[in-house]
Write a structure and sequence with these properties.
single chain, two-stranded parallel sheet, 2 domains, two-stranded antiparallel ribbon, mainly alpha
């Protein structure tokens, strides 16, 4: 909270503690304390499209498996159409590559957070 207070002092932006939620991660996930007058939770939270949870298995399911399933569904819908090779390439680039970029940036964020 010292870092948050220092940021608030420099930027003029403050943390609304009444609306804020916190989560124990990694080796602290079994903690049952509620310090700093924050609401502590262990359910998955969606932050800018990325799910964060106490459990890595839940993170993998929500961030990777569900995204892959959705991408597969979108590609299957387009597979039913009679597209040219150029059309197929365009669909894969527009639908498939955005998911690949999402995965690459997400895996970097999760690797950094787990250190």
């Amino acid at each position: 909270m010292k870092l948050v207070d220092e940021f608030a002092r420099l930027s003029g932006l403050t943390l609304n503690v009444k609306k804020s939620k916190a989560m124990w991660l990694r080796k602290w996930e079994k903690k049952r304390r509620n310090p700093l007058n924050l609401k502590w939770m262990c359910i998955a939270a969606c932050i800018s499209g990325v799910y964060v949870s106490c459990k890595n298995s839940k993170n993998n399911k929500l961030n990777f498996r569900l995204k892959i399933r959705g991408m597969q569904t979108n590609l299957d819908i387009w597979r039913a159409r009679n597209l040219t090779l150029f059309g197929i390439a365009m669909i894969i680039k527009s639908l498939g590559l955005k998911i690949v970029r999402f995965f690459s940036s997400l895996s970097l964020v999760l690797r950094t957070a787990n250190k």
